[in-house]
Amino acid sequence: MKRFIKEKGLAFFLIAAVLLWLKTYAAYVIEFNLGINNTVQQILLFVNPVSSSLFFLGIGLLFKKKIQQTAIIVIHFLMSFLLYANIVYYRFFSDFITLPTIMQAKTNGGQLGDSALSLINPLDIFYFIDTIILIAVAIFYNRPTETTTKRPFKIVMGASILVFLANLAVAEIDRPELLTRSFDRNYLVKYLGAYNFTIYDAVQNIKTNSQRALASSSDVTEVENYIKANHDKPNAKYFGKAKGKNVIYISLESLQTFAIDYKLNGKEVTPFLNSLAHDDHTFYFDNFFHQTGQGKTSDAEFMMDNSLYPLSQGSVFINKAQNTLQSAPAILKSQGYTSAAFHGNYKTFWNRNEMYKAIGYDKFFDATYYDMSEGKTKNYGLKDKPFFEESMPLLKSLKQPFYTKFITLSNHFPFEMDEGDTDFPAGETGDSVVDHYFQSANYMDQSLEQFFNDLKKAGLYDTTIIVMYGDHYGISENHNDAMAKVIGKEVTPYENAKLQRVPLFIHVPGVKGEKSDKYGGDVDVMPTLLHLMGVNTKDYLMSGSDLLSPEHREVIPFRNGDFVSPKFMKANGNYYDMGTGKLLEEKSVDPNVEESVKKELEMSDKIVDGDLLRFYKPKGFKAINPSDYDYTNHHPKTSESHTTSPKNSDSE
Ligand code: GP9
Ligand code: MN
């Protein structure tokens, strides 16, 4: 063996492979929170960089002896770079880079990239030290042998494939259907490694693009049958009660349900929203869960407007903006509604300017319609108070009835406020993110009260149905210690799943509301709203289930295949009793529930991946033609070239 290594000049290659292997393992342990639950997973984590180190560095062995070491160094550097990019990305998002997210970073005008710079640490040079060692070895101990045979290459590739297959086999025993089911990227990295994940991701993307090409009109039948069989009858008590009313949606940035009615040292954090939660004309849902994926705010928007699930990877706004949709604003358009979106950030963010055309928004008031001068902006754009204030004249200029949405921004990670914007005290957990959250949530609450007062003054309050929803979590798992202090108990996976609750308010003038603890999720809002507006939804292909219907389905899937239901939930692959949080054995759990979760996601994915609505023509629906829309602002208040660039960091 020793002779073989020496003779074939493999020593340099092996040094490179071992260095890359150990460094990758060190990164797993230091940087990523992969949830290692048992010894098998621990061993797999240690072993999984081996196959890809051998495979990719092994490609270097194909090169002629003269440049072989250089080739190995270049490959080693590229892999180190990929690893490091994942590390930086993970520090924000607790997730790994996927091809669609790279596209997102580009489309979002580099804003994600800008904020990434602030999380790079000088000690990170550690992740490149081994490449430097390799260069030194190549320079000082350069002893290339004269062999030109392909044998070493073949042996290394064979070894890499064997190690990979063994790795996969053990992983499959611990986690069946690892590669076939849709689940968390963390699992793939934990079991198969960061580099193999990148390959998996690339293959997935090629597959997704071909899905559209391969889908045909006959694929609609299965989806249509499934959705129609699961259609919930609207509640006669509420059907049509808001017919002809205006609609205002408000996306409450990062607002989680734990904040509602929460008192910080005796002071309510969101007094205005609390009053609405107990208001006579408001339906307030306190078991409502966000179902967003990597597309965050935009995923929530997608679900509100379309009642379909976003993608398991990347943002549907970015990857599927060419799809045909049958959205709520488009459905109401055929009944004479005008639609508009209001957002104090630039129109390219999350690719909104394209996706809103597919959704059918008549108008998009982006940052160019607002005064974006210093002091008025923070993080991604205009602060909520000036945002609502400056939106009022724009809103009043719309032809009624209207369907509109307002996307707030101030309560965004890292939640720090400018001096003078708040006199609400910060929390005292010692975690800056959590502590500032209370201040920015209170600021948002004040801005909402201001907006409601303005609506009343404008005479719109009594003619408008107002839907407000927390768009996604604001405080990530990185802050579990501080959150334990806030909620007064340890943040177990069960508690963490419960923290994914976001508040949902539906204020309907003239209708008696109620506080409901029914389980619901983002996709359920559109059918609820349409039924209130007196729109029959039987002919539309939606994933959601009317929250006010007596037949409302209470199993709420999450994008990674986990779910909650009144009886039990699945979090990080484990089952818990929903009431007590006790860990349940898989065999004590009704398999039909999990089956229905899989089916729900699968049916929606078929529509979105195959762009199936292009083949589907609901009765009375006038199809949207995106090229009919143009959001150019001919009298901009702020020039298009400005971009908001968060100084601290982006989101987590
Ligand atoms: C940016 C805003 C915030 O326009 O939607 O994005 P988020 O990071 O919350 O998805
Ligand atoms: Mn958001």
Automatic annotation (TrEMBL):
Belongs to the LTA synthase family. Pathway: Cell wall biogenesis; lipoteichoic acid biosynthesis. Residues 621-652 are annotated as: Disordered. The chain crosses the membrane at residues 42-63, 70-90, 125-141, 153-171. It comes from Bacillus changyiensis. CDD domains: LTA_synthase. Residues 631-640 have a biased composition (Basic and acidic residues). It is found in: Cell membrane. It is a multi-pass membrane protein. Residues 245-535 form the Sulfatase N-terminal domain. It comes from the Bacteria. Residues 641-652 have a biased composition (Polar residues). Pfam families: Sulfatase (PF00884). Keywords: Cell membrane, Membrane, Transmembrane, Transmembrane helix. Its main location: membrane. This is LTA synthase family protein.
